[in-house]
Design a protein that fits this description.
The complex is a heterodimer of chains A (about 425) and B (about 425).
Chain A: E1 9-13, H1 21-25, H2 27-30, H3 32-59, H4 64-84, E2 102-106, H5 114-118, H6 120-135, H7 155-170, H8 175-195, H9 207-211, E3 216-217, E4 222-225, H10 234-238, H11 240-272, H12 277-297, E5 318-321, H13 329-333, H14 335-367, H15 372-392, E6 405-406
Parallel strand pairs in A: 3-6
Antiparallel strand pairs in A: 1-2, 4-5
Helix pairs in contact in A: 3-4, 4-8, 6-8, 6-14, 7-8, 7-14, 11-12, 12-15, 14-15
Chain B: H1 9-12, H2 19-40, H3 61-95, H4 106-139, H5 147-179, H6 183-201, E1 209-211, H7 215-227, E2 234-238, E3 249-252, E4 259-263, H8 273-288, H9 291-314, H10 326-363, H11 366-380, H12 388-394, H13 400-413
Parallel strand pairs in B: 2-4
Antiparallel strand pairs in B: 1-2, 3-4
Helix pairs in contact in B: 2-9, 3-4, 3-10, 4-5, 5-6, 6-9, 7-8, 8-10, 8-11, 9-10, 10-13, 11-13
């Protein structure tokens, strides 16, 4: 299935989430031949990319031969990385054939602005900042010849690490982790396609555009929604950080109360099977408030938020919480341990939110609008953190969904294969 | 029987104040005067005659010319900055309420946002003039601060300022909601209470301080504190040499948080021990005469009518309980601050003179005091005898010439 994106580098996804425990267990070893081959390919890609840059600068378009070679290189690298990071199961072919479960569709050569070509390295810098939290070190594996496994704690690496344990237990890659990995892989592919002059379209960090209809519809006891026209007030953008100081102070004071409340809630939920009403209400308000504050600070939303965290008070970025429900006592008892993987992933998402906020600050100040991609990436990151916090504070026992979720009500393409909810460790 | 129709229009109009309210205000005004008189008291003899000092006898003509042009630029720059701030705030008071649409924070939260943005606007208006001042100070070697550091420092400093604005607006708007147009009667003491708390805790807010290690200076502090009647006063050193070369010291807090803060630029060897003793004596003089507390008292006396005037002016926008009144309230407050600035300068200069007098009595070393003032002027390129307008508008210390004149007066009273 191809994502319905207008970007020349599109995702083709046919993965069924099934994984072989054996190949996953030894994945880091099995990938070695691929990396040796990739390193050789990288050397050649280095040379060709320099010639391609000169040709594109002169002709205004990448020559077909170079375009095909570099497109194959990006496809192959994406396939190898998808294999290594458990986003796909089959062993990739060495010639980057079509039909791999996580594949790319790269458009033909098109005219490119010569100024954009000449300054491509400069223009790459902001996008390179985003690759950090998504795929770790942007240089790993691609072009610079660091053909290692990319141990640099980006979203991609963490999704693979957590996915490894889930697969060992269930033989399936949790969809949320797979989608998070695929999102990071597609951004990396678009980044290198832009760097190697396969296109002059800037990489799109929008997770909804990356996965499109393939993303899971929004569901679950903790959902994050937002009504946003992307307009941003330049004055409040300029002073966004100091304007957030009173909120950050208030959030800090609130957090002091949340710690004992969370402990009390844990004991009460363990004993009674569900969170007491007043504690649930207090902690839910805290989860809402922290989302309001970070959405404002990270430019995911425009209006200055209130200080109460009350439901419906901040339509620009709102947490929709389900009613209290009975929770599994085992999951309650070991919540602190179970939440650790989500906590780790939340760190990667936090870095992503901070980077897009920093870049979005400059753009919003100049244009009075935040790019949709930045907004949606920030919303994904903060939404995950809200889910994680709600899970950690025992507002629900449903594990945070780590992939992008599209708003409900839109036509959905059925997922490639059915999946069992909350399978195994409950990683999603 | 006379109907209402027969009463003249002027008599039918609702009086501005009821009789009890008018009496209350008169009592308040009398209390204000009594308090001001008590705070005005100084230990400097009232009949002290200050002999005339010719600055040319103390400084070279070249220095006088250089320091005069140096201070003149900074004064004009400062004045232009204030004009820019007023213009920006007038504009903001006129159009700022439109920014209410950028808030989802409710009435008081929106007021806080508008208040913070008002001070953000002030920062923008002041920025070019601050940069000009940095350039001028750098070109004269009195500052080592970079432009970016100065701009960023000011920007990040807005965080603390915004916190204070939010707290103030929370109190004022909350009281305006509860008390209507009389909110200022409770708000002024509340703000004074906050200022008192801030004064008490101020020592903890001063960055980059460490205890005074120099045993000689520490012994001087102990001895002078004993003489000035505040034994046990602790001294700390603040590291500022990366930002400035100017020497300074300050006295902060009261009770258990009473501290003497010496800048490390004062202790870098440019000043003799006797001169440093004079500075210590001066700062201990502030503490001995409870000037930090008196400043809070004066602030309270300023806040009472200021808050009343803010209430009066914002009534046209529905009172301070409404967020759209906040931009106007900030304008009125800042204007009052600027207008009363020269009066507050008089108070400050009087306290500084009292601290100088106290130092002279403690150190009994007029030569050191005189030498200190000359040295201070030279190291900070301060104009010993600035123009009158600059003195009235900006100077919160007596001029160097006045301070040396006081030394002469003390010496005349204490020969030998």
């Amino acid at each position: 299935m191809v994502t319905q994106s207008d970007h020349p580098v599109r995702l083709v996804l046919s993965d069924d989430l099934e994984r072989s425990r054996f190949t996953v267990f030894f994945r880091a070893i099995f990938v070695i031949p691929l990396f040796i081959w990739l390193a050789l390919w990288t050397i050649l890609a280095w040379l060709i990319s320099i010639v391609n840059w000169l040709c594109t600068l002169v002709m205004g378009r990448s020559p077909g031969l170079f375009h095909r070679f570099l497109a194959s290189y990006v496809k192959f690298t994406t396939q190898v990385y998808a294999y290594l990071h458990l986003a796909a199961d089959p062993y990739p072919t060495f010639d980057a054939q079509d039909g791999y479960p996580v594949d790319l569709q790269i458009g033909p050569p098109a005219r490119q602005g010569r100024l954009s070509v000449a300054l491509r390295l400069v223009f790459l810098l902001p996008a390179a900042l985003v690759t950090g939290p998504l795929i770790g070190d942007p240089s790993s594996g691609y072009l610079l010849g660091r053909g290692n496994s990319g141990i640099n704690f980006g979203l991609l690496w963490l999704a693979a690490l957590l996915g490894w344990f889930a697969i060992m237990a269930t033989s399936r890659m949790p969809r949320g982790l797979r989608d998070a990995a695929v999102y990071a892989l597609l951004y990396g592919a678009q980044f290198w396609a832009y760097a190697l002059l396969l296109t002059d379209r800037y990489p799109d960090v929008d997770p909804l555009a990356a996965l499109g209809d393939l993303a899971r519809p929004r569901q679950g006891p903790i959902q994050v929604s937002g009504e946003d026209d992307l307009r941003r007030s330049r004055l409040t953008v300029l002073f966004r950080l100091p304007l957030a100081f009173p909120h950050l102070l208030w959030l800090g004071l609130w957090s002091l109360l949340v710690l004992p409340a969370a402990l009390l809630n844990w004991l009460a939920t363990l004993a009674g099977g569900r969170s007491p009403y007043w504690l649930h209400r207090f902690l839910a308000a805290y989860v809402r408030y922290q989302l309001h504050v970070w959405s404002f600070l990270y430019l995911v939303a425009n209006p200055f938020p209130g200080f109460s965290g009350s439901a419906g008070s901040y339509p620009a970025s709102e947490v929709l919480l389900a009613e209290r429900s009975v929770q599994n006592r085992w999951k309650t008892a070991f919540r602190a341990i179970l939440a650790l993987p989500a906590f780790a992933l939340s760190g990667a998402y936090g870095s992503l939110a901070a980077v897009v906020a920093l870049l979005g600050w400059f753009v919003s100040l100049a244009l009075g609008r935040v790019p949709r991609g930045f907004r949606n990436a920030g919303a994904l990151a903060l939404g995950y953190q809200a889910q994680m916090l709600g899970y950690g504070l025992l507002l629900t026992d449903v594990y945070p969904y780590s992939g992008p979720m599209r708003p409900p009500g839109e036509d959905a393409v059925p997922a490639p294969a059915p999946e069992s909810p909350q399978a195994g460790l409950g990683l999603a | 029987m006379t109907g209402l129709r027969d009463v003249p229009a002027w008599a039918r109009r609702r009086p501005l104040l009821s009789v009890p309210a008018a009496i209350g205000l008169v009592v308040l005004a009398l209390a204000w005067l009594v308090a001001a008189r008590a705070l005005w008291h100084s230990s400097v003899p009232g009949d002290l005659h200050l002999p005339r000092v010719d600055p040319r006898s103390l400084f070279s003509a070249r220095f006088l010319s250089r320091s005069s042009s140096y201070e003149e630029f900074l004064d004009v720059d400062g004045l232009l900055g204030e004009v820019a701030v007023v213009l920006a705030l007038v504009l903001y008071a006129w159009r700022g309420h439109r920014l209410m649409r950028e808030s989802a924070a409710g009435r008081i939260g929106t007021g806080m946002m508008l208040g913070m943005l008002a001070f953000g606007v002030v920062w923008i208006a002041e920025l070019p003039f601050q940069m000009a001042a940095v350039w001028w100070q750098r070109s004269h070697g009195t500052s080592q601060q970079g432009y970016l550091a100065a701009a960023l420092g000011g920007f990040l400093g807005l965080g603390a300022e915004f916190l204070f604005v939010c707290l103030a607006l929370l109190v004022a708007m909350g009281l305006a909601t509860l008390l209507g147009r009389w909110w200022w009667l409770l708000a002024a003491p509340a703000f004074a209470g906050l200022a008192l708390l801030s004064t008490f805790l101020s020592v903890y807010l001063i960055p980059q301080t460490h205890p005074l290690h120099n045993p000689q200076t520490a012994a001087d502090v102990r001895q002078l504190a004993q003489i000035e009647g505040i034994p046990g006063t602790r001294a700390e050193v603040q590291e500022v040499h990366r930002e400035t070369t100017a020497p300074n010291a300050e006295s902060v807090g009261f009770g258990p948080t009473r501290r003497l803060i010496l800048w490390d630029t004062l202790l870098d060897g440019r000043f003799s021990r006797a001169e440093v003793r004079a500075v210590i004596g001066h700062e201990l003089g502030h503490l001995a005469h409870r000037h930090p507390l008196k400043r809070v008292g004066w602030l309270a006396l300023f806040l009472l009518p200021a808050a009343g005037l803010v209430a009066l002016f914002t009534a046209s926008r529905g009172g301070l309980a409404r967020p759209e009144a906040v931009p106007l309230a900030v304008l009125v407050y800042v204007l009052l601050g600027l207008l009363t600035g020269p009066l507050m300068n008089i108070v400050d200069r009087r306290q500084e003179a009292e601290a100088d007098w106290s130092s002279l009595r403690a150190t009994r070393d007029p030569a050191a005091e005189r030498s200190l003032f000359v040295n201070l002027a030279k190291t900070s390129l301060g104009d010993p005898d600035p123009s009158s307008w600059s003195y009235v508008l900006f100077d919160d210390h007596p001029t160097i010439v006045q301070r040396i004149s006081m030394v002469d007066a003390w010496q005349a009273r204490n020969p030998g």
